[in-house]
Design brief:
By secondary structure, this protein is mainly beta. The protein has no helices and 11 strands.
Length: 122
C-alpha cells in the first residue's frame, strides 16, 4: 500500500522558513516524478515544485523561485521542500504526490499525502 506522509508545516512569521517533508512507504520515490502542491482555502490546488524522475528537471512556480529548494534523500525515501522568506500569501495545506506520467502531467498525480498546513500571519 502506497502511503505518503507530509510533515513540517506550522505557524511561521513572515520572512521565516520551513522545511516540509514527504516520507513514502510502499513506493520508491526516486522511480517517479514527485510534486509539491498547495491549496489555500477557497482556491484550487496548484503545483508549486516538481521533479522529473528521468531528467532531474526541477520546476518551481514563479512565486517560489529564489526562495525554495526541492531536495531528496533516497535512503530515507523522503523528499523535502525548503521554503524561505515566507509571505502572508503562502498559507495553505501543502501536499506531495507521485505522478504516473511526466512531472508536468498534473492530472496524473495519483498518490497523495494528507497534507501539512502552513500558516503565516499577516
Amino acid at each position: 500500500q502506497v502511503q505518503l506522509v507530509e510533515s513540517g508545516g506550522g505557524l511561521v512569521q513572515p520572512g521565516g522558513s520551513l522545511r516540509l517533508s514527504c516520507a513514502a512507504s510502499g513506493v520508491t520515490l526516486d522511480d517517479y516524478p514527485i510534486g509539491w502542491f498547495r491549496q489555500a482555502p477557497g482556491k484550487e490546488r496548484e503545483a508549486i515544485s516538481c521533479i522529473s524522475s528521468s531528467t532531474g528537471i526541477l520546476y518551481y512556480a514563479d512565486f517560489l523561485k529564489g526562495r525554495s529548494l526541492f531536495s531528496r534523500d533516497n535512503v530515507k525515501n523522503t523528499v523535502y521542500l525548503q521554503m524561505n522568506s515566507l509571505k502572508p500569501e503562502d498559507p495553505a495545506t501543502y501536499y506531495c504526490a507521485t505522478c504516473a506520467g511526466e512531472w508536468h502531467d498534473y492530472p496524473l498525480y495519483d498518490n497523495w499525502g494528507q497534507g501539512t498546513r502552513v500558516t503565516v500571519p499577516s
